[in-house]
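@channel anyone free to eyeball this complex?
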Amino acid sequence: METTRSIGVTEVALRDAHQSLMATRMALSDMVGACADIDQAGFWSVECWGGATFDACIRFLNEDPWERLRTFRTLLPNSRLQMLLRGQNLLGYRHYGDDVVDHFVEKAAENGMDVFRTFDALNDTRNVERAIAAVKRVGKHAQGTLCYTTSPEHDIDVFVRQATELRDIGVDSIAVKDMAALLKPQVAYDLVKAIKDEMPQMQVNVHCHATTGVTLVSLMKAVEAGADVCDTAISSMSLGPGHNPTESFQEMLEGTGYVADLDKVRLADIKRHFAEVKPRYQQFMSSYTVETEIFDSQIPGGMISNMESQLKAQGAGDKMREVLEEVPRVRKDAGYSPLVTPSSQIVGTQAVFNVLMGRYQILTAEFADLVLGYYGSVLGEIDPDVVEKAKAQTGKEPITVRPADLIDNEWDQLAADAAALPGFDGSDEDVLTYAMFPKVAPGFFATRPEGPKNVGKDPAEVEAERVAAAAKDAGTGPVRTSIKYEVTVNGRKHSVAVDPA
Amino acid sequence: METTRSIGVTEVALRDAHQSLMATRMALSDMVGACADIDQAGFWSVECWGGATFDACIRFLNEDPWERLRTFRTLLPNSRLQMLLRGQNLLGYRHYGDDVVDHFVEKAAENGMDVFRTFDALNDTRNVERAIAAVKRVGKHAQGTLCYTTSPEHDIDVFVRQATELRDIGVDSIAVKDMAALLKPQVAYDLVKAIKDEMPQMQVNVHCHATTGVTLVSLMKAVEAGADVCDTAISSMSLGPGHNPTESFQEMLEGTGYVADLDKVRLADIKRHFAEVKPRYQQFMSSYTVETEIFDSQIPGGMISNMESQLKAQGAGDKMREVLEEVPRVRKDAGYSPLVTPSSQIVGTQAVFNVLMGRYQILTAEFADLVLGYYGSVLGEIDPDVVEKAKAQTGKEPITVRPADLIDNEWDQLAADAAALPGFDGSDEDVLTYAMFPKVAPGFFATRPEGPKNVGKDPAEVEAERVAAAAKDAGTGPVRTSIKYEVTVNGRKHSVAVDPA
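replying in thread with the prediction:
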């Protein structure tokens, strides 16, 4: 018989799955119960940190993200812990000075991180160089990333060229990141094959979302083309805007000459754990559908809900269709960036502005920076008129250098600023928390002593609240004043108005 | 470039999708709005009748199933209409006399049916011979079926042998029917390849459910192996215990050398239609998950919920685990039948009986018939002790002939019986309705003049009912008697008990 090739699996339940399915709201306390099984199931790595989890921890959960990381390190002693890192943006939304990048990577490694999946929204490899060098310096696994997208500027050759740039920077592996589930099976095969042909020794990881319904097939094709590791989420935390089910991925491979050697009993236990936890987050759950329209619109689901709430806030909820048609044009005018944090938000918000106020009448500061090169370089031509408008509006000149070359070292200043905040604990980790989210961190430092807040709710509790609210609206309950009743007082009937006691 | 091969698609939204996702409850009135788009989308066929829909129409919807068929014929003038037919069982749950089979096929064809997917739960091809001959005689498309299952008795060679039997009977095509989503990608490839190698000209259709999460990959592999047509459901009626999404299937093929030539604009309209209809059937919806445990337990989802309700009715809801462990043993003792209607119900119910009353202390009449051969032959050995028990309990002898050989022609008697029923309209169609469901049909004939009943409910209506029920339970509303209030009557406060007016 043919030999079998072992395929690694990265389990994303602890990070991207709940980020995608329930707005990153899952509390650490709802994850710890699954950690022993996750640690023993045989995953290549466990993605559990980074992305939006840092932000959500301090913004919604009053939870110290560094403490979360240390807890995972303790509870997953046999696992490679993996994080998603936005290159020079780290986990924030601007480019940081190189010294902050170095500090962040050192502290993440020190607190237990093993695998740093590092990406740049524009696939500008200059924006990940510093972070990757820092990861290598601390002896951890540096994973470079290709954000997959489709446009007239993108083809297999382009991605292979970007992959060679990452190899030359010194990455230990390369991830194909398909955040919008656009990677169809044949392209998955061709892309992974082309990378492997170019660099046979390079480990290739494939990360697909499930939104369009086709990407488990894409993972199959990627494996056939030579992919080494695939990302999946345990079935009870899978599908919709999330990921393909871990158990299905394993079963899919049976008899194919590839094998994902995971412990099925452990998987069943992990599944059960999250099946029990999930209903507590119903209020944050995205609706659960397959959306193939994304192939044409290029607009990932999270971006649509973002734009919808922006429109509604402006009383223009009826303009959604115009905005959806505007997004591809704005993306073209900005040189065909992939749409992923933060470029998805920047392009989406500008499209909303264009529809509400006239095309490019007002540029957001971020969109102006994007077209002026302050986020890095893109593959396509940027519309010259839009560049002129950005210059006129901001007084800034376009740049072609690495954006962070224009940012001085800033650690000392950030440390000094953080030190002035009530509740600051003196650690470098706290400086980094402040550096990442200067508006949110002060409030978090102040309330941190109150301890983590679990925003999940018992479904019965949610139901009771709904009933109370509905009863109030409908006037079926005693909360409304002056309901007319027939009342018996001392044996006599009266028609009376009733107020709650 | 390589040539592309065109792959047909059978859309199952109008039959198996709502049977699988919402207990077959969808009313015709909720389907008509999608028919124009379905008719023009480019499907190879439209499955819209048979299976459990006939039963559900008269049992729950007060809808004449023959009228439903005629309506589809009118609204889908350009489409091949397809039905699922249980061979000698027709759409009922027993074997019928050959003359009834003939009448049924003739009437179905006359009312508009084009493609008869004909299966037997045991894959005993003697049980489909008569129906297939009848389909050929009326000049319609006769599709033979292999019910896919796994057991020590089942391998590729066995299925190919059954396929050659079907070919020899004269089928126009062969369907691989994977009702429990057990068909993994490699087996899908090997099985379709083996059938195509044996009979290159035979059209092969593949029908997979999505329950285990792997079967879109299986469809990809089946296509690579030569499959001609695959079954899918429009995305808003897909996944869970249902089927893979039609749009995803089409997109999946892009660039592979295979193409499903469907009209994407029509698909988007069909999707929207059912996305709007679906919430009305929330009360009937199965919970929506991926279940890979089925690979080990062999127990499809619908069967589990059946057994659960049987156990609960006996106050033995805590015995579920024992029953789940008993099913594979009962299946083995009965010679490894596939588990599909009616064998799934027969095996499942016997497993429940075994757990509740001791193993084979009591056999159901149906299980006794199964092990005595009255449903046909199975591949494995039937446990001799169980056969003895069945003989003792029923006084019947085992048979090896085709079961229907023991059934006399019965049309005249059925027609006479039906004619005596109030509301019988004198048609052969009514005779067939009575023949299929002799207990339900009389009630249906009586209430038919009231017209079809749409059991879907506006979500707001469901919510209002829930609130009212919850308010009653919680005592927050005036429906509960003797709530204590502070009441002001004539300016004086009283503590009183209140009853609703």
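from a first look: Residues 34 and 270 of chain A are 6 Å apart (CA to CA).
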